[in-house]
Predict the structure.
Amino acid sequence: MERALGRLLEAVLASRGEANAVFDILAALQSEDTEEIQAAVRTCSRLFGALLERGELFVGRLPSEEMVTSGSRGAVRKYKVWMRHRYRSCCSRLGELLAHPSFQVKELALGTLMKFVQLEGEHPLEKPKWEGQYLFPRELFQLVVEGLLPTGEDSALLLSQFREFLEYDDIRYHTMQAAVDAVARVADGHPEVPLAFWNNAFTLLSSVSLPQQEGGACRFYVQHAEPSDKWKVTHLKEHRKVFQLMWLSFLKRKLPLSLYKKVLVSMRDAILPHLAQPALMTDFLTSAYDVGGAISLLALDGLFVLIHQHNLEYPDFYRKLYSLLDPSIFHVKYRARFFHLADVFLSSSHLPAYLVAAFAKRLARLALTAPPEALLLLLPLVTNLLRRHPACRVLVHHPHGPELDADPYDPGEEDPAQSRALESSLWELQALQQHYHPEVSRAASVVNQELSAPEVSIAPLLALTPFEVFEQDLKKGPEAVPLEFIPAQGLLGRREDLCAQFFTLS
């Protein structure tokens, strides 16, 4: 088959009179045989690649075939228009092949389309409006990006092949623009967008990574004789604007819950640093923070950046953080990240005493039912709060504190200001001093002595697991315990008793 296609290729390139042989080549693209399709794709790559380089495709706004064939224009022009239409049909079919069941066909079709993108950029099929205008085959490239985002299947493997092209500045820039249009087309055209499409779109968007700062000459996939500084594609600030538009247009859609988690995990390091205006993510992050559960925990990361680096004001932030403290917090996947950020947010010395007291009391109350590995984190965190805020030490030095059955603290109150924590005491720490695990008992007993000035670092304790606690106990080895030194003589001291043999150890 490949030999037959090769002969047709040679005939078309040798003589314009054999141009109709193109139909036979394009027909092979419609075959159901995988090898035949691959042969046809390779033939089309060579054919239209050569025609682009030789300038034998019509340049300008493409007229309809009927208009050209019925007109009195020259034969050369008619041939170029006719062949340009065949080229368009070829590209359209290659775009369809990006969804072919065979990955080999997908990969070959993608490589061929990207070759055409490069050649169209070097030999434009549109006329520049002015000298030095930046030309890029946007229409063809839009076809490629839409083919990478099917609605019915996972295209992660094909997207991983496309990732190598994102190293080029022009491909990265136009990928971001094309992704905006592709997402809008599917999201606006389908009442229920399939999960596969959202996952594909997120995979593509998260593959786009911008440099941290301007760095020398741009690296172009489409070569230009004289690149100009007037082109937007040459400036990082323009890339940041398009990057921001891409993510904002994506996040305004109604996304699946699983995708929210993926976005929030990468928000701090992969998205926010590259936005032209990070504060525009405020609405998304605050909405995610109000969802509750793991979504709220992950939104903390992004809010932390906006609050500390971009002066975001969030009046109910600590109230929401307080409400996230419930027993389930010890069993979520992102527990370490949450407690790290909570420790950072509670490190300010300007926080009011009632607020810190409410957090300390809430954490101590949760500690009563927490597993040992969580207690080894919670107890140092509570004692650190007392070290930072001396006004809260009244919780452990309360000479006239309430009885346990009359604790004024209200654990069901969502507003820390109304919880009456400062009127209470940390009797929970005293109870935990009788814990069965010696390390927990020791950590709870720290409040019995004068608290030292240096805080205890909780970093090594954030990701502590039950297995690690068990391993630490095993490494300590058995402790010497006192035993009965007078050997038993039998049941109730009777030497001749029938049970005496069970007490005689030799």
